[in-house]
Amino acid sequence: MIRVVLSLLLLAAPCTAATVVVPIPPARPNPNWPAAADRSDGLLRTTALALHNQTRREFGVGPVVWNDWLASEARAYAERMAATGVFRHDPTPGRRSKMGENLWHGTRGAFSYQIMLGQMVDERQHFRPGVFPDVSATGEWEQVAHYTQMVWPSTTEVGCAVASNASDDYLVCRYAPTGNMDGVALIPARGDVKLAQGRD
Question: Is residue 97 within 8 Å of 113, Cβ to Cβ?
Fold first, then answer.
């Protein structure tokens, strides 16, 4: 069974009449399916930069560049999650002030880097312009937090890594400067960005 868990650890909340959108994994999670997805540091770097910068260009902000130190930090934390099986944001004191973080978790070898990162980009369907954290049409900023970190205007560098255990892959992307900071306006500079309808 293919499992995909995004990094947001959502708290249980009472059901409401609102529509809940549940992403459906693609029929082919990688071009080699059912064989394992291609893996290499170079392929991850190329895919991550291309997808981040396409998404940022569509939002109307400048590109990011690869940072080997951020990638090294991402690898260390991905390896820690793979070793412990504990999927959560890095609780190291002070980490958040130094670097932002996006996480992804899924079945080992099943998903291409494009799918892993693409699921973060897909959160834009819930994004609405506003002052962070009031940037989600659903009222839950956690449902757009991967996307907003990817397009955060002041972020200029990214580094990503994947580590695996016997059953799971753990993707970590680290960002500098950190995004998703309360009180910052997040407004697309491009008029052709498809946004969710706002919640009033």
Answer: no
65 SS3 class: strand
Interior CA angle at 12 toward 93 and 185, to 5°? Answer: 55
Whether omega before 133 lies within 30 degrees of 0, making that bond cis, reads yes
pLDDT digits (tens, 9 = 90+) for 83-103: 999 999 999 999 999 999 999
Residue type, 186: L
Rounded-to-integer distance, Cα 12 and Cα 15, Å: 9
Mean pLDDT across 28-32:
74
Alpha-carbon span 142 to 180, nearest angstrom: 10
Q: What is the 3-state secondary structure (H, E, C) of 108-142?
A: CCCCCHHHHHHHHHHHHHHECCEECCCCECCCCHH
Cα–Cα distance between 97 and 180 in angstroms, integer? 11
- Which of 77, 53, 10, 5 is CA-nearest to residue 150? 53
* Model pLDDT for residues 112-167, shown as the tens digit of each residue: 999 999 999 999 999 999 999 999 999 999 999 999 999 999 999 999 999 999 99
Structure tokens belonging to residue 187? 């407004």
Name the pTM for this structure.
Answer: 0.81
